[in-house]
Fold these 3 entries.
Entry 1:
Amino acid sequence: MKYGATNLAFLPIKDEIRRFAEMGFDYLELGMDAPTGHYTVIREMKKEILGELERHSMGLVCHLPTFVCTADMTESIRKASLEEMLNSVAVSSEIGASKAVLHPAMTTWLGFLAMDRVRDYADEALEKIMEQAEKSNICLCLENMFPRYGYFFDPVDFLEVLERFPLITLTLDVGHANIEDKTGKRLAEFVKVLGKHISHVHISDNKGKEDEHLPLGVGKINFKEVIRLLEMIDYNDTVTFEIFTPCL
């Protein structure tokens, strides 16, 4: 397997690459959120970023913008968010990323009162993002979320999308699968139902209520079970550590 780490969007990217290289990571997962990860900044810094990655023999995965709303109830917000996504996919290709992680379309609180409409907007956006990914030769990895997101937190939420877009793969976020999981079986269900579609994994710990991004062993996730589940599907691809919170 290849192991990577995600940068924080307010720290200099080159410094993050050096730190991750010193820790022995194989690649950078580049978060494409403002200020330092915005696609305009990445495009301007392309030579510097690629030079630093080459200097440390590191690969590159991109994480498309998190804080945009391609399924928002307001049309102008949807259009602006989609433009951010499409440009970010294009820049991911320009800098040679092997794959790009995509969060399902985010909405605002009003959207939860009209989820059928939100899903339609999300489908429209995903179709356009997928077209750009194919054009850019980027492997798009759709990430599982958690119940308060509204959808795409349960394995069955992905079945229709994977049927419509067979080139889409899955980012299995172990931390997300643990949030508000009353049965304790959600992660196992993801592996059982969607194992063949998993092409990327996010690792962090939490206590089951919030997406805390804790170091492993600080929260309540059983990582021996995580390893067992991944071994069941002979997983041997990229694993990103998303640790943003100190030990609490």
Entry 2:
Amino acid sequence: MNTITLSTLALYFLVMIGIGLYAWRKSTDTSEGYLLAGRNLPPSVAALSAGASDMSGWLLLGLPGALYAAGLVEAWIGIGLFVGAVLNWVIVAPRLREQSERFDNALTIPQFLANRFPDQGVALRVVSALIVVVFFTVYTAAGLVGGGKLFETAFADALPGFGMSDYALGIWTTAGIVLAYTMVGGFLAVSLTDFVQGVIMMVALVIMPLGVMFGDGGDAGGSIAAVPVEGFLSLTQGLTFIGFISAVTWGLGYFGQPHIIVRFMAIDTVEKVYVARNIGLTWMGVSLLGALGMGIAGRAYTERNGIVVEAPETIFIVLSELLFHPAITGFLFAALLAAIMSTISSQLLVSSSSLTEDFYRLFLRKSASEREAVNVGRVCVALVALAAIGLASDPESEVLGLVANAWAGFGAAFGPLILLALTWREMTGAGALAGLITGALVVGAWI
């Protein structure tokens, strides 16, 4: 690993920590400040924060890897997600921003549900908070595995191990940097770092396919139309009806993802939700096109040059090291870490907010001061992170296989509930609780 690449990554880490310190001075005096940045997020920050915390390493690893392996038919997942994101911004965002403040200034999704349906308030807070904490601990573990795999693949023997494997060092480094700015700066730090990380991710996703097609590889990787695989550029090759429905309905899960929709609650005014929507959807569209282009162009390049990529999900890492100057490679690796870290930080903070607001202040210390609540929130961030590190320590752990279903779990448990709570005045607390439990149980049984 080139020292220039490592220096670029070190600079990225320092910027993230610096943002955390800035946020610490600006918005961590109260629970509303620590958990929602005082509901004063600018539209651009809210939009890119929602996008970056949503896409994670899937955007740079999973989707390009799927395109690389199977061809353009895998693009239906991205299409479905984009449509789901549009509906989420149009239906959920403005209503949740207005109603979460109107119903006793709710700071968390469980708290909003409890305030919306007071007759089942305690039960809704407890059940929904349990779902959030359990699923997000597993989700966070998956993100840490991504960090561990990056260090194991790209930084092998380039860093002092401190008695650890490259994989373990990657887990602890990723977790340590995320904890540094999340614990200190809270929601504002997470959102500002998400904004920076979102910009880095989008730039990387534009650079990569263009570099493959028009960089030093020249014609050896330039044409994306000459992949010697039948139907590679077909949207329907091998596609079944069930496969199509399964792919495009991924987007329905957006309505129930707490780490995404909580961003809507933090935008400074309802009117600015529409500005944030346009920014967020533009970012998502460009980023998805870049990921699709990377997978296809990467397959063309490796086929023409006889390069064997054993794990399709590593095509981003492989191309970064093969085609770019070490400084650019460092930037691209920073983009991958940004994708991973932006989601981890969001999940940690949402889990912490549920533990603090929906357990600690609800059952243990109802009279807790604002400063006490903020400090408990910081402790809860660390506790969830330690639990996730434990799960991630074994990359083959079966619990990580559940992550593929966590999106469905949140979507089924919270998605219909959030939609109806925001749009149907006649909905009852009993119906809300039944829907929450049924959605979680059905996904669990299906798994």
Entry 3:
Amino acid sequence: MAAELDQRVSDYLALQGLTDDVQRTVLLTGDASDRRYVRVLLRSQPSIVLSVHAGPIDYAASPFVRVAALFNAVPLPIPALLHHDDALGIIAQQDLGDVTLQAYLGGATATERAQRYREAVGIVARLQQRGAELASPDYPPYGIAFDHEKLTWELEFFVRHFLLAYRGAVPEEPVRQALRAEWATIVDELAGEPRVLCHRDYHSRNLMWFDGALHVIDFQDARMGPDTYDLVSLLRDSYVDLPDPLVDDLIAYYLALSRGGEAMPAAATEFRRRFDLMALQRNLKALGTFGYQTVTRANPVYMQYVPRTLTCVRRALAHEPRFARLAELLGGLIAELR
């Protein structure tokens, strides 16, 4: 553990009166943010996890804390917030262990896998339904949305950090103009859809299997967006391959939950069309993130997930004739999409 991080953690534990109870501390693998996570194993009570921010925080005003209050009101299963120190920039949370949904699937049967994913889809439906009832300017997500600006920025993020920086593909100006036209078509449709409350990063690495149930983490970026967004994040996940029959069943299950019964065939077909569009945008953005982490942040961990994400993009492009021009443009820049 770096000396500065070690000192901040030591100071925090002393302020909380925990120093004498500490068995040891363990630096955990972080996410794509600038936060660091430290597990503190205690002798007389359950272990805790410290979220160590880059600098001082304002706990009461932080998006993480305010979204936690909203998710508790839903309610969703999230880690309990235990204590904090603003000056040290540390928040202590309940320790949910190390078993992400991604890790759980490694030893799961087909039946267990389906059960966990139904549970995860149920959380999405509950978040959307209760989110509409709890809408209030007191909660930050209701003032932020996947609008034209955000969705366009994400697609340009893909161009900048995946095409240009990671792959070294430099599209000529007519191709760039054609890509912008394709982005505008995608963004116009997605931004025009009715908005629901979204987790924003709802996938197998942000769901923990703890005490016999899934728990939701990394929710501070929650915002309003299309009803397909979280479902796409879960079912077209860069980290897990799901068989198409299971994806089809889970989409049908979501539609039954969200519409109070089995969806009419026409409604199901339209939802799947919107699902594929969202999958295309979401996975292009994910490729941008992987490129950014690899090149800009010098973090190679995410390189292993590029092939699966490209497969998700290829699947989405092939599923709809309307993506033919975009498939041609991207295929000219990315060999895996030809």
